[in-house]
Design a protein that fits this description.
Number of strands: 16
Mean pLDDT: 85
Helix content: 10-25%
Structural class: alpha+beta
Radius of gyration: 21 Å
Largest sheet: 7 strands, mixed
Number of helices: 5
Distance between the termini: 48 Å
Order of helices and strands: HEEEHEHHEEEEEEEEEHEEE
Length: about 280
């Protein structure tokens, strides 16, 4: 059994950041009311900066058990970001998580006891027929893909991907910024979450979380068992990550599950990624 955090330590970690995820590109509120007025919902996780047990992400064998379970070794994250940082310990190092923790706590300290400022939300406007690009979008091969505004539906824009018949509805509440470059170039629509390809549905869907740099060109990975491909019911296989560019050029595609993750099997020398071939 690892050196887990006690309940008092979990409460301290959450309170020190105002119950917000410490990932600077997320900052999701992790607690709120349930329908039952006597209960509250919690979507936060007291994550270990260095793992509680040997073999875990960023494990430091030089720490004492009481140091591993101390508040100094913890960071408050939402469930999505907790999974993200533990699935890619190389990108989300001790240094990165420590910086997140420090910035989040300093921000909470600055806000304590201060009235929140109220600013008007600017109207989101895009004319019908306008061309635009969307960011962030997964996989990143679609970063330069162009969409057109088919209609303004009031609360959302109906968009169509120009190189296909695929349609996407983007709520205006999901749009963070619109960068206009004049009539010569498509506008860039910056989302507060991400637009994500879902292989099973053969379409794009919106997700609220916006991972740091999308965790790479192929998005967020999730580890699966080597025999997972047999359950997909379509032509699929594992491929070495360093061979993906060649295979994608041959008509294969990275498979994205319903939660927006691509599927990988950590191989001995390089990750193996699930790819599919559409007929």
């Amino acid at each position: 059994m690892g050196d887990d955090f006690s309940e008092p330590v979990k409460r301290v970690l959450a309170s020190r950041v105002g119950n917000l995820c410490s990932n600077p590109d997320c900052r999701a509120l992790t607690s709120g009311p349930q329908t039952d007025v006597s209960k509250a919902i919690n979507l936060g996780v007291a994550a270990h900066i260095t793992a509680a047990s040997p073999g875990g992400p960023r494990y430091n064998r030089d720490l004492l058990p009481e140091e591993r379970s101390a508040p100094a070794n913890g960071i408050w994250l939402c469930q999505n970001c907790s999974k993200l940082v533990d699935n890619d310990a190389a990108q989300f190092s001790v240094e990165v998580l420590t910086k997140w923790k420090t910035v989040a706590e300093e921000g909470a300290r600055d806000r304590v006891g201060k009235t929140a400022s109220i600013t008007a939300v600017p109207a989101v406007q895009l004319r019908t027929g306008a061309r635009l690009r969307i960011a962030p979008i997964v996989p990143r091969e679609h970063e330069q893909a162009e969409f057109s505004v088919e209609d303004d539906k009031g609360e959302y824009f109906a968009l169509r991907k120009l190189d296909s018949s695929r349609q996407v509805d983007i709520p205006k509440s999901f749009i963070e910024k619109i960068h206009s470059f004049g009539n010569a170039k498509p506008a860039l629509v910056q989302l507060s979450g991400r637009l994500q390809w879902i292989s099973a549905k053969r379409n794009f869907e919106l997700f609220h979380d916006n991972p740091v740099a999308l965790a790479g060109a192929y998005g967020i990975g999730r580890d699966v068992h080597p025999n997972y491909v047999g359950r997909l019911g379509i032509e699929s296989k594992f491929a070495r990550e360093d061979r993906l560019p060649q295979l994608l050029a041959q008509g294969w595609y990275v498979y994205y599950d319903l939660d927006g993750t691509y599927l990988r099997w950590p191989g001995p020398d390089v990750n193996q990624i699930v790819i599919v071939h559409w007929v």
